[in-house]
Amino acid sequence: MSSEDHIDHVDVLLVGAGFGSFTLLNKLRKLGYSVKIYEKGAASGGIWYWNCYPGARVDSDTPIYQLFDKELWEDFTFKERYAGGPELRRYFNHIEKKWHVSDHITYNKHVDGATFDETSHKWMVECSDGSYLSCSWFIPCIGFASRRYTPPFPGLGNFRGDIYHTAVWPQHGVNLKNKRIAQIGTGASGIQVIQEIGDKAKELTIFQRTPNYCLPMNQRLLDPEEEERKKKEGKYEEEFEKTRHTFSGFTYDFLQKNTLDDSPEDREKFYHKLLIEEAGFKFWLGTYKDMLFDQKANDEAYKFWRNSVLKRISDPEKQALLAPENPPHPWGTKRPSLEQRFYEVVDQPHIKIIDVNKHPVQEVTSTGIKTDLGETEVDVIILATGFDSVTGSLAQLNIQGVKGGTIADHWKDGTKTSMGIAIPEFPNMFFLYGPQAPTAFSNGPSCTQFQAEFLAKFLEKVKAEKITRVEATEEYEADWCRRMQEKWDITLFPLAKSWYQGANIPGRKVEPLNWAGGMPEYVASLAKSIENNYEGWRIA
Ligand code: N01
Q1: Residue nearest atom 5 in ligand 1 by C-alpha distance
Q2: Which domain of life is it from (predicted)?
C-alpha cells in the first residue's frame, strides 16, 4: 500500500455472510452505522455454503433455526421440521432480498488480517486480493467451524482417485452412485453423508475412531397452513422467547429432577418419550438435570440409548462397534448427531466398518487405504474429519494486537477471551459464535441473536457517548476464564476426547472452549457490563 492509495472507510466491517453477520447488519444499520460484509465464498450461508455435502441438514428444529426477526419469518416458511442444506441456502437468499443486503456484501473477498491504529482508533483490514478497508469496529462472524481439519495420513497425496472433505464439498456436487467409497470420520457431517450415500454406493468402508451416539431425528414435512396459523397466533414469537430462558437456547430445558428420583419404570417411560416419541436433542438437552454431571445418571441414559440402537442392527460386529457395551465416553459428552435410518443403512452387507483404534490407517496408497487388515481399494475418499474447532477460525487470521502478536500468539498458553466476545489488546474488535461463549452448546441462531442484541446496545451507547476506543480488560478476561473452567469442571465433559475441548487436534492444549454455564447466565453477564457502565471494558 502506498501513501497515495485511497482507502475506503466504513463504520463496521463484518466478516462472513452467515447468521451472525446478518443478525448484526440489520441492527447496526438501523442505528445509523455504515456496515459492510466481506465474505470469502461466492454466496451467503456461512457454514451452509461451504459444507454442502450430500445429506447436509441442520439439527435444530423449526422455527428456532432462523433469524428471530418477524420481517423475515412472516413470509418464509420452512418445509421440513429440520431444514436441509439447499433449503437453508434458499433462506439466505430470502434474507438478502428482503433486507436488500446486496449493497452491503462483497463476495469472494477473503480477509487475511488487520492492524489497529492507535492514533485514529481504526482498524486497517487487509484482504488476499491486496485491497484494504478501514473500519472503526471490526467484527469477525466466522463461527466455530471455518478452519477444516485433515489428519496427516501418510500418502494422502498419492491417492489417484477423488478426495473430498465435507467442509469444502464441491458446489456442483459429486456423483457417488456405484462408487467404492472410503469415509473417515463419524461426527455430525460423517453420519449425514453415510446415511445419504450408503444406499447408492457400490461399497462403503467407514473408518471409525469413536462411535457417534446418534439420536433419531423424526424428520417430518411441515404443514404450511399450520405454520401460518402458528405465526398468526404468536407461537413463533413464543418459541423464540423460550430460547432466552433455556440452558442451550432451544425451546426445552433439563428437567428439574435427578435420574434416580424416578422409579426404573417411570424412567423407562420418560426416556422412551424423549428418545422415540419426541426425538431430536430432547434425550440430550431436555432430560434429567444430572445426566451431564453424574456418572451413575449418565450410565442409565447410555443403557437405554444402547438398547434402542441394538434393536436396529442385526450384525453383531456392527452392534459392538456402534453401541459398545463399555462406552468410550459418557453419554452426551461428545455431540450426538440426529439420524434418519442411519443404523439400518450401515447394517447392509456392502457397508463395512473398520475400527481405527485397533486397525489404524497405515498409509493411503494410490488405490486405497491400508491398515493391518490389508488394503481397501476405493474410487473415492471422503474426509469427514471436522475442524480446528472453535478457536481455529479466529486464530488463522493475521489480526495484530496493539502490543504486537496475533490472536494465535495471545492464545499460545491457552484460550483467553472476555465473555466470549472480545479480547484485551484487540480494541474495537468483537466476535460472534466463537470461543468461550455458548456457541457449540447452543442453538446457533439463539447464540448469535443474543450476542448481536448485546453488541447493538453496546454500540448504540458508545455512539451516543462519542466513544472511539473500547478494549476488554485483562481482569475481566481472567475472571471469565476462571468462570469457564469452574463451569466445565463440574460436568462430565472433560471425560470425552472431544473437539469441545480441542482434543481432536493432536498436540493442541485440551481446555474448555465453550461456555458450559448456560445461555441465561451468559446473556446476564453481557448485560451486566452495560448496566454497570462498561464494567470489564476500558474506554476512550
Ligand atoms: O466434525 P467432527 P463434523 N482418524 O469433529 C474423526 C457442526 N455441524 O464436521 O470422534 C480417524 O464432529 C473424528 O473421530 P473422533 C456440529 O456442531 C453440524 O462432523 O475425534 N478419525 C470424528 O468422528 C458438529 O458437531 C451439522 O474420535 C478421525 C470425525 O472425524 C460440528 O460441526 C452438520 C481422525 C470428525 O467429526 C463438527 O462436525 C455438520 C483421525 N486421525 C457439522 N481425526 C448439523 O447441524 C478426526 N477423526 C447437522
Answers
A1: 386
A2: Eukaryota
